[in-house]
Amino acid sequence: MAMVHTGGPDGVRLHVQRLGPGRTGPATPTAVLLHGLLTDSLAAYYFTVGPGLAAAGVDVVMYDQRGHGRSERPAHGYRLDAFVGDLERLLDRLGIHGPVHLVGNCFGGTVAFQYAVRHPERVAGLSLIESEPATPAWAAKLEKLLGYTATQLSEHEADALAWIDAHHGGHTARLAKSAARLVRTTTIAEDIPSSAVLGERRIRSVRSPVLALYGADSDMAAQAPWLESLLPCSRTVVVPGHEHSVLVEVPALVLRHVLGWIGDPGGRRGMPSTAALAEVEAAS
Length: 284
Prior knowledge:
Number of domains: 2
Radius of gyration: 18 Å
Strand content: 15-25%
CATH architecture of the largest domain: 3-Layer(aba) Sandwich
Protein name: Alpha/beta hydrolase fold protein
Organism: Streptomyces bingchenggensis (strain BCW-1)
Shape: globular
Low-confidence stretches: 269-284
CATH class of the largest domain: Alpha Beta
Order of helices and strands: EEEHHEHEHEHHHHHEHEHHH
Mean pLDDT: 88
CATH superfamily of the largest domain: Alpha/Beta hydrolase fold, catalytic domain
Structural class: alpha/beta
Domain AB hydrolase-1: 32-153
Number of strands: 8
GO molecular function, one term: hydrolase activity
Keywords: Hydrolase
């Protein structure tokens, strides 16, 4: 565990944890795990797929993104480019210069995809869990979500937290309280929706193999055919009976697919089709 300052005028102190297989060498793959927004932190990976990836021989880097977990919480500077810049500088500070595998859950996947657009030579593969590229539709959705959060968890914080505690337990209420503080004390709710977004031409520019995992009952699953049409080196896993929280609800399944993608990015040894994967998951 360490605090790493990313340096530069926009740099912040990031809480980083690294899990390794013990001995590493030139052939050891590195996976950087990026968590989601507001209520999330590196703990989402620490208690799900992080240890399993390390046990399988992967050099695992996890960190709390700016404003989250134990990382620094500046008052300003939460546009998507700032999160991508943190990833750029963190890898440099850690001395990781070769291509890495990026695993992103929700907003973390959006950061990972943006990084792949900017640095295609530094990405060996992408695993996007319930995530999507930053498009105008994404920005509109985040504006609505963050606006609602600002209202419910800031203007009516006590009532909202009491309801969450009663219906989802104390742990979730504590996470929501942290999210409310982040929204209340920073410009994150204004910054993220005003981030620069991608058109289809720039999305098509990504040549890294992309694995996309969705819960079948999540609204994000509907974008799978669109994303596959833009990215020839992409595959989709649709998990029946689940919504947005597939990482925490079925971590063993997610680990299996992410490990398979890291070991065979792009499915060169015969990744099955989206439909076939859905059938496999339904039977498992």
